[in-house]
Amino acid sequence: MDSKRSLLGGKILLLVSFLAAPSGAQEVEEEQTYILAAGRRLPYLYAISLADAIEPANDNTANAIVSRSKVALDRLDGRPLGDPANLIVSEDGETVYVVNHHGSIDNAEFMQHGGRGQIAVLNVDAVLDPQNDRTPKALQRHLDSGGFGAIGVALIPDMLVISNAENNLTEDGGNRITFVDRRTGSLRGTVELALGSPDFDCDYPVPYVSPYGPPRM
Q1: Are the CB atoms for 140 and 149 separated by under 8 Å?
Q2: Cα–Cα dist 79/46, whole Å
Q3: Could you state, in chain order, the average pLDDT of each consecutive group of 10 residues for the chain (217 residues)?
């Protein structure tokens, strides 16, 4: 695969990104289109062949899945970790940034809102390699989102713009937009969004106190 890969229209559609890329064999010149999809409660980034996905014979099968890349390393006891809820691909098509909504957590255990947000950085070539199926080989590193319950992500030169939709161990109170340096992972800035609107007051106490009591694990 080479630098000829490009995003189709540069669009991210919900949790899915479409990539036009040469196939794994260098001698095959015909480009193939792939879908990158976040697995959410299944902590994988899925690479899916669009041509195989629309083939009627593959209906209700996993035949179109090219590879599943882990978005975090397994826990020491072997439990898979991660909470992939969104993604965006770099301008050159070489890197995919996956938003782990609550970080490197075990979805079977973590039922509480407000986990620390995290960005998993993966290499696209490795994501599209079937030999890396169900492994973390495409994973390069993690970046802290600078907040809790990260979900939205956008690209600007040198930085990720991240929407942190929750507060510490609670679903409420997420009004922070953070700016994270792509190269170093440094938190470059934070914007606190205004609460409420005219004729609608929704200020919450700081520090936040849940009306339902303290967080329960």
Answers
A1: no
A2: 19
A3: 36 53 48 93 96 97 98 97 97 97 92 91 98 98 97 97 90 87 97 76 63 61
Phi, psi of 56 (to 5 degrees): -55, -35
The span from the CA of 22 to the CA of 30, in Å, is 6
> Which has the closest alpha carbon to 96: 2, 185, 182?
182
**What single string gives the DSSP state of each residue in 116-179?**
EEEEEEEEHHHHT-GGGTTBSTTEEEEEEEEEEEEEEEEEETTEEEEEEEEBTTBSS---EEEE
What's CA 49's distance to the chain center, in Å? 19
Domains of the chain: 6-192 (2.40.128.630)
